[in-house]
Specification:
The protein is of the alpha+beta class and 321 residues long. The chain is 29% helix and 15% strand. It has 10 helices and 10 strands.
């Protein structure tokens, strides 16, 4: 197995064996899930390069008997097979909050939902540039049936475009696509939420990623949502998308002195050269708040208060109807 990279417009870089040769091909094994080679082939610099990942199982001259033995001994999702056979980076990382094997199982798992499960939308709004504006949908254990909506960051600088897209989603009246609640990252999404409410959509709610968590185990609301998503991935189903899978596994974590979960922030990810996990954050937003099953006699779902005898901080609007 080998992963191939080619500079689109410039010379090769130090991570490749063929250095400083204009337009040359280089060959390497992705033995780490961080660093320059990882960013060029799988990360935020991949759009600048032509690259191919070659699966040894389909190569003409590979030792098929040896490959079959490795898969039997280690498993198809093991890091040994991923690196030496599939042409993929290893899944394990000392700092990884969500392990790749959990995500891989969620990509393959068949799931069912109950008829009264509410459809929840998560809207991660970008500030422009390389980051994307992403809306993802989840109904119970099903996070794959309704495709995501992805809008490039530069196009989303015109907020009227994002408002129009979100309003179209919220106007959908077909039962299978009627959104019960949409949760929007307030960092760049606060004006969008305000306009949507002005238009009469009262099922749109701001989520402050850095706001206080509703659970004392988490340092902030983003850590809370990602922890909920991690637990859900053990039984839920997501699309078979490599980009989403890599993003979910991207953030690191640590436990602070107050024994609370601290998830690696987007700014910290950017400092180590990683792309913004916009798709993963959009999915995580669907776990911002528990939404009760839809009662047949009612048009609107009930949003459940997860505090004991308390109100809400960090999310806009009233929650008990």
């Amino acid at each position: 197995m080998r992963s191939w990279g080619r500079s689109g417009t410039n010379t090769s870089v130090g991570s490749f064996r063929s250095k400083r040769r204009r337009g040359c091909w280089s060959v390497w094994n992705p033995t780490r899930n961080s660093g320059k080679f990882y960013r060029i082939t799988f990360g935020n610099e991949s759009h600048r390069w032509h690259h191919r990942s070659i699966d040894s199982r389909t190569a003409a001259r590979s030792n098929k008997a040896q490959i079959a033995e490795w898969i039997s001994d280690y498993g198809i999702d093991s890091d040994f097979v991923r690196v030496r056979v599939l042409g993929l980076p290893p899944a394990a990382s000392e700092l990884q909050f969500i392990d790749f094997s959990r995500v891989q199982e969620a990509r393959k798992r068949k799931v069912e939902t109950l008829p009264d499960e509410p459809l929840i939308a998560g809207f991660d709004v970008s500030g422009g540039g390389a980051a994307w504006n992403v809306i993802r949908f989840r109904r119970g254990l099903d996070g794959r049936s309704i495709p995501p909506i992805r809008i490039p960051g530069e196009k989303g600088r015109d907020r009227s475009v994002l408002i129009g897209v979100a309003a179209e989603v919220l106007r959908e009246s077909r039962p299978e696509k009627k959104v019960a609640a949409m949760f929007v990252d307030s960092a760049f999404g606060a004006p969008i939420v305000e306009r949507l409410r002005t238009l009469g959509f009262d099922n749109v709610h701001e989520v402050s990623f850095g706001g206080p968590s509703p659970d004392y185990h988490d340092a902030n609301w983003r850590a809370y949502m990602w922890r909920q998503m991690k637990d859900w991935l053990a039984k839920g189903g997501i699309p078979d998308e490599e980009q989403l899978a890599l993003q979910i596994c991207l953030p690191g974590y640590h436990i602070n002195r107050s024994n609370k979960l601290v998830l690696e922030s987007k700014s910290d990810l950017a400092q180590r050269g990683e792309a913004s996990p916009d798709d993963a954050d959009a999915l995580a937003l669907t776990f911002a708040q528990h939404v009760a099953p839809i009662e047949p006699s009612k048009q609107e779902p009930v949003l459940c208060d997860i505090f004991v005898g308390g109100g809400f901080s960090g999310l806009g609007g009233g929650w008990m109807r």
